[in-house]
Amino acid sequence: MSRGDALTLYAVCLAAMLACRCVPIFLLKGHELSGRLSSALGLIPAAAFSALVANDLFKPEAFAQGPWPAAVPLVAAGVVVLVGVRTRSLVWCALAGVGCYALLLCL
Predict the structure, then answer these.
(1) Residues near 104 by Cβ (< 8 Å), separated by ≥ 6?
(2) Rounded to whole angstroms, how far apart are CA atoms 43 and 73?
(3) Residue 57 and residue 72 in contact, taking contact as beta carbons nearer than 8 Å
(4) Contact at 8 Å (CB) between 77 and 57?
(5) pLDDT tens sequence across 33-71
(6) Contacts of 79 (CB under 8 A, 6+ apart)
(7) Mean pLDDT computed over 11-36
């Protein structure tokens, strides 16, 4: 790939990124969003995080090593969910998840 092609690709990507991030801000400035749309947009961070976590929890290659290596992240995730429901604290969720994962790897 030549330098000109790389710069063209970079410029197109930059323009697309700016268009997707900045144009909605300018178009929606001063307008009130409906309640349903606001609540739907509020679900985006949780959905994106869930997709990232699910991608790491369910790896097909983990099951090739046996059932226990595949179960360790699932058990740790279950502990995190229980701690999260009980405490509603991100710090306690992180500490419980890391601690549980480390403990299960030592077994």
Answers:
(1) 72, 75, 76
(2) 24
(3) no
(4) yes
(5) 889 988 998 999 989 888 888 888 888 787 788 788 888
(6) 96, 97, 100
(7) 90
Domain positions in the chain: 1-31, 44-106
pLDDT at position 49, please? 86
Q: What is residue 102's three-state secondary structure? A: helix
Where b means 16+ CB within 10 Å and e means fewer, 25-55 reads eeeeeeeeeeeeeeeeeeeeeeeeeeeeeee
pTM for the whole structure = 0.60
- Please answer whether residues 81 and 49 qualify as being in contact, where contact means their C-beta atoms are separated by less than 8 angstroms: no
Of the chain, the end-to-end C-alpha distance in Å amounts to 50
